[in-house]
From TrEMBL:
Gene3D superfamilies: YVTN repeat-like/Quinoprotein amine dehydrogenase (2.130.10.10), Zinc/RING finger domain, C3HC4 (zinc finger) (3.30.40.10). Pfam families: PEP5_VPS11_N (PF23341), TPR_PEP5_VPS11 (PF23356), VPS11_C (PF12451). It comes from Nyssomyia neivai. It comes from the Eukaryota. PANTHER family: VACUOLAR PROTEIN SORTING-ASSOCIATED PROTEIN (PTHR23323), VACUOLAR PROTEIN SORTING-ASSOCIATED PROTEIN 11 HOMOLOG (PTHR23323:SF24). Belongs to the VPS11 family. The keyword Hydrolase does not apply. CHCR repeats lie at residues 386-534, 548-706. InterPro entries: ARM-type_fold, CHCR_PEP5_VPS11, Clathrin_H-chain/VPS_repeat, PEP5_VPS11_N, VPS11, VPS11_C, WD40/YVTN_repeat-like_dom_sf, WD40_repeat_dom_sf. This is Vacuolar protein sorting-associated protein 11 homolog. Residues 988-1039 are annotated as: Disordered. It is found in: Late endosome membrane; Lysosome. Keywords: Lysosome, Membrane, Metal-binding, Protein transport, Transport, Zinc, Zinc-finger. PROSITE patterns: CHCR (PS50236), ZF_RING_2 (PS50089).
Amino acid sequence: MAIFEWRKFNFFDLKSNVDGGSVARTLQDAEITCATNGSNQVYLCDSSGCVHIFGRSWSATSFKAHEGAVILCKYSRQNNLLITVGTDDNGPVPDCKIWSFTGKQTKEGHPTCVRTMKTALQKPTALGVSDGGQYMAIGFDRGSISLYRGDIARDRSKAMKTLSGGTTAITGIAFKMISKIAQMYVCSDSGVIMYNLHSRDKEIKIVLDAMPKPIRCCVLQSGQNVGDGHFMVGKDDAVYCYTSEDRASCYALDGQKSILQWFRTNLLTVSSPGKSSISMQKDSILTVIDIQNKFIVFSTPIDAVAAIIVEFGTCYVITCTKEVFHLDEKDLQSKLNLLFKKNLYDIAVRIAKSSQYDSEGLAEIFRQYGDHLYSKGDFPGAVEQYQRTIGFLEPSYVIRKFLDSRHISCLTDYLQHLHKMCHATADHTTLLLNCFTRLDQTTNLKDFLSNDANPDLIFDLDVAIKVCRTASVEHALALAKRNAKHDFVISILTEDMGSFGDALEYIGALSFDDADCSLKKYGYILMERCPVEMTALLKKLCTDYTEKRGANGLIDTSWHIDRGSPEDFIHLFGQDTRNLVEFLEHLVTNVSNCSCLVFNTLIECYLSMWPKDTAAEKRILDILQNYQGSYDRNHIAILCRTHKFWPGVMFIYEEEHLYHLIVRHHLKNRDYNRLLDTCRRLGTLQPQLWLQALTGLRSDKTAPANLLSQILNVIAQEKLQSPLQVLNCLAVEKGPNLSSVREYFLQVFQKETDSFRQEDQLVEKYRKDAVALKKHIKSLQEDPIEFRGTICNNCHQPLSIPAIYFLCQHSYHHDCVKGYSENDKDCPACHTKNMQILDSLRQQSESRGKHDAFHNLLDRSPEPFSVVAEYFGRGLFNKIVIVEENTNTESIKPTSGVAAKLPDARIKAPRPISSQNTIAEARLRVQEVQSSKVDIPVAEGRMRAQERRRNNVYSSSLEANLTWRKDPNAKTPPVGSPRRTAVNAISKNLAIQPKNPFDDDAQYDESKNPFADDDDLSVGREASTNPFDDYDSNLNPFD
């Protein structure tokens, strides 16, 4: 390809004199022989043997490297080493010197020479150094190559090895590292060869090009991935590229190339002008080629170039006339604007991509390119460019351009690509399907819906199905089934095709969640059209549901059992009671934990069938009896009452213990047999049922004659009411005649008469016993006692002195009593009986404090008055002092807390009192005789009343003392302070010695003595003589 056939653009600017003449002033008359760069510095070597170092500001630092001219130079970046080859005065053999910029420097600040080597006796023509500094090679004019291994900065490196590079002068040497193997490329007029340098002094030579052609320059392509860089050689007809195996592509460019350099992605060449070139005034032509896009981005005539330096992030061209030019690349936007003006959008896209332009910027280029093609009438090409803008350009911008009927095919292509890129909306899907329909592209429509040809194609399935339902129901159904759109499938089968059976079959093959959701949505219409099949499917769904098939069409053995909620489907049956009952019975039979609603609904269905189906009654009762707790009793009771199903109502009443409602129902319906049976069966649990039955039958004239008498007999036997209460109950208007209850009252009166007779006999007996006991006590007190016992009641031997005689007419030897009992004051024969009596008295005194037990017994007793009478008869309301005799001292045990607080001087033996309990009195008399005389204590209530009237007497009650005796001078302590006043009052009151109110010197009011004669009491009649003054009124059972 000739140079004029390349596309040319001006993407660079060449700026001159960027160094301000610093290079010319520094070199003066010397000529530039070679140049290199690295570490942000530019190294220029001249013919006088000096090396000039320039920084970014082009300020120079120079030092003398050789006596003669510097022929070659190279810079090793990693080691900061400068290698120069030049001649010195010591002979014709050139020297190779290594200069270090990191070690110790000279006094002038110049780098030090760390190594000097003699080269071969030939003219050096090429120099190459690897990036790591491990390899260095010098090429000579006769084709030989001197290869140095190891650290080139040290003299102890390995010896030099000479390689052959051909018969002509070596033009260039370049190193490229691939993994651990170094590749050395060598070019000369004889051809291009490559050496694979291994670590063990082994080189493998590979001839890449043996065609002899003049080669004046070469460069190793940079900026590419490791191993991809080509070794580029400049020949007169073209620039050839070589890989490690063979020759690669070439770039046709006429002219003798003197310099090749690589800058970013561009190849810079300096060549002599050809014959057809119009710029003959200059010695060379500088050309910049964009290798990637394959066009010339800059070309200009220039003076002879000494070197091209790529440093400081840019490119500099140094001519032999010591001028420095800056090759400045234009920014990307300027390049693109230049291409847009020429409508070269394809090139603009390539340049933008190669420059890593962002996607949004590329989309804008594609949009302009598409607009350009659209304006030219190239609609397919425009659509192709618009497709590349998807995701950045609004689709409506493109759609508006192709809405004309002539461009439907282009619009279809764009919409298809829009769906493929997953940027389509529901409207776009609708439009595309309409385009397919309009163009009658049935095949394309099927392919689009099947998505087999383009598996990555994604579109709005819902919209696609809706559009297809208007055009082709079969396509819509197939699309819905293929994409598992179960809702659309069932909707199409039921609404569009009317295939309700197929819809049920399709639902039965779905997963549990999908089937459950579908039946909830389409259950009404499916139950209306296919009730039997729908009921069967619901049975399976709510018991043990499994999918019919797996994903591969085979039976899935790893299924999981799920159960639906029957409450969600009961309403679907509506008035179809028969199928609903079948469904619910199946649930009750196969599901152990059915909900309350299932049982309630099933019972309700049975109740609706009960008037016509006699077997329904048995089913209802079976459910009520066998599934208690599974249904709502209140709800079922209401349903049973609504449907007048009285057996169910009676059962629930009985389970809820509402027995009175059962009796009320039988009374209302005058079902006397069931009434009597209910009272007999439940009367033991609730005896008031008999009274309720009596109250309900008292005004019923139709009741059997013997029914009332049977109820009254039970009431009398169980003592549910007194005869007077029964009489008051029956004494109502329109009540029963006396003849119907005559037998009951006669029996009651007879029982009462017998009871009174027995009680009179007992009273007479107790009276006689009391009189006899009193006489006996009196005789014991007044009359002499004759002991006639001559035989010991223990050993039944004749008595001998000493002997012990007891008042009970038992006599014992003194030794017999000691051997039988430790206490000789107790009769061994009567000891057990006496202890029983004392234990009984203690129990009575202890039970006196158990007020809760007394009140509970009083509440539970049908005759509370008899309980109170029994307590009075047993003397439980009296304060009794039990006097016991000990062997040495007399022990007095009061039975109440009040008596325990009295002083010992006030506790005396009980005197005979005129109490109704003569037996207790007799016992006290016997104890009085056996023990020392002890006075009966005065009632605590009376003592408290007396003490309240006397301010100088100390009360036995600490609480009373604190309440009654207040210190008038006491001050109320402040809030939160300790109440020391109360404590002091207590201690003072406790220190007062108690006084006996019955002492002779005490001024006792005889009018308050309850044991005084009637004449003595006439004076103080107004005083209280009630023995129950000290009884707690809160415990009075009659309040």
